[in-house]
Amino acid sequence: MKIYYSLLVVLILNVINISAYKVYSSEYELIVKFKDSVIQRDNDGSSNIPEPIKEINKKFGVVSCTPVFSSIMPFHEIKASHMQRTLRVPPFIRKSTSNDFTSLKNIYKVTFSDIAHLEDLIRAYRSFPGIEYVERNVHLIICDTPIDDDDETQWALDAMNIPEAWKISTGSPSTLIAVLSTGIDTMHPELNGKIWAKDNIHGYNFVMDNTDITDTHGSGTALAGIIAANATNQTGISGIDWYASIMPVVTQDNDGVGSCISLCQGIYYAVNNGADIILIGGKIEGESNLLNELINYAYHCGCVVIAPSESEPLSLSESKTDDQKVITVTPCGKQSVQDASIPDNGINLYAPGLNCISLRPKKQDETDYSHCYETRSGANIAAAHIAGIVSLMLSVNAGFYNEEIEPLIKSSLTEHGIPDAPAILRKSAIPRESIMADLFSPTLEKHQKSVHNINERGNGLVYTLLEKLVYDPSITVGEKGILINALGTAKSYEAVPYLIELLRTEDNSYIRRAIAQALGAIGDKRAGEALVTILSDSDAGVRYKAVTAIAEIQYRDAGNTIIDLLNDQDERVVFATIDALAVLKVEQSLPSLIKRLEGREVSQIMKDAIVVSLGELGNEDTLTLLYEYREQLAKNKPQEDIVIFEWKNSLQKIDHATEKITRRITEQKE
């Protein structure tokens, strides 16, 4: 009887454990962030939710309301304890960011039992003014699956020219990559010596809330293998980085399902424990403010976050994360690479992700790991390949800004449209200081090469330019102009607010012209109002650059304002205004343009420009006027050959304009 009773107890406990593991569902959880002003703090640092929330919880049968993060480490301590990584955040961002992320302690997980009243509960929370946001704890799903494939070659390594890249670098043991997935089989021989440890703990399981990082699903082990499998043991497969360490973080269960909370807890853990690269092995089903906050936290700590994207590069969900501070990767297959059929839209980053061999966990009935390999397909696999390449990049240049990495990869693709690893590493080795020095070089070739490198590295060097422009008191006027021009060439949207502010305070006409030109090149409508303010500038060059920039950014609100510049004393300004009125479709300018066309003192070149604009703006009345103008011009045929050519060109412009107007009128009537 005692034996029977003991077995019964064990069976019941196992059932309870399985039930807790499988029946648990994030569908019965909400994420609630409170404002600082409503959270009550005890002397020991613990917090209490406000009474109105307690009443709401009681009314709707809330089971628990607990902090998502059990303890919040001071942001300055995290940065100080991982200083090399912190230096990967551009200094300009470090200086201009006041967020210390202490508000993470105000985020709570609310568990409820009656899903029928979920919407009522959400509305009740949102009606309370002390709540910043309420959202569902959406699912985190896996983005790869095992497939049957007889091809055991690592075709992806050859496709990205990884063997050539190994001649430059095989990696560094100082790089730590957190794999947020289903766990890792840490006993796999291919991962021997590669698994991170701290106080004899090799990672954490945020599904079960313990240190069991066993992988029975397979995805996490496969991702770790692609990144860091032993490349020198003469067997199996080779990881991209021969020496990197892997931090196992379990965010999904044995079925490959997790939640936004388990993912964000995993990110927080990885950041605080020193991960340089965070590979997210899944995609959340929906939008999340919480995820945005954690991506932002990782970014400001210097981490490089990489995640799968099965089609469009919309990060981890159907909405962009904060400032898109995550590298998203779309998978492609061997055939697509061979056929060069990967689309080049300038947005998606593609990497091998279909039919790729890697490691798998050992099954219970297996005695060794000799057959513990399998082929998998999915966006997770593609993301793992990029994680491996980023790891090699950091081994070549540990001082990389995290903002530089994705643009540099995208600027270094093979002819088939996937990352070219050796080209990436060669560019990675160019010191930032050398690029900046060449920017101010009197040698044109060096200057142009520097601008090219800045464009390839994206925001990383853009922020370096901004730091010098905004914070360096010793900067000369000439250097300031060079920096502004470089920001325009780089089309830096991040620079726009600072250029606008500089435009408001800068007295130097040369700098004001440079700013207007840069804002036009960037093409951001936020600059519109600031550009309108300098249309009346005393310097004609500033007015000319302002009108041109307004046209480039297509700031239509300025349309009526720039009509007055048709009477400007500077001919360049008038020409730019005529073009701008056509681009902005300012129909109210027709009378002014026609009046100028009929003017006797107006040059033929300017009349030609007006005709082109009338072709974009004109109506039936304009059509009649242009026919009469053509007839009059045709009667006055010049005698000189050179002038005849110009005369014919003017007639052609009129014909093109009348054709455009006629076609537009016909389409409107249809």
In short:
Helix content is 47%, strand content 12%. It is built from 29 helices and 19 strands. Strand 10, helix 9 (219-228) and strand 11 (245-250) form a beta-alpha-beta unit.
What this model shows, in words?
The chain has 670 residues and is α/β, with parallel strands linked by helices. The chain has a seven-stranded parallel beta sheet with strand order 10-11-9-13-15-16-17, with helices on both faces. A four-stranded antiparallel beta sheet has the order 4-5-1-6, with helices on one face. A three-stranded antiparallel beta sheet has the order 12-7-14. Helix 23 runs parallel beside helix 25 (571-583) and helix 25 packs parallel to helix 27. The protein is globular. The termini are far apart.
